[in-house]
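Structure ticket #2291
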Amino acid sequence: MATIKEVILKHHKKEDGTYNIKFRLTHNPKITYINTNYFAGEKQLKKDFTKKDKFLLGLQIM
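Resolution: structure written out below.
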């Protein structure tokens, strides 16, 4: 069974200081990352790179 989780990879920081919010798709121990059109700045993230901004918390997969 496949699982989907939102992730922010700290080593994927852009020059403007933002991070792309990705979906991690896991199926039969293979992992694939899917880019989204959403970006988060450091002020919108907690130290463990989870979302803390109210707008970002409201984003849903579907």
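Closing remark: Residues 3-57 form one domain.
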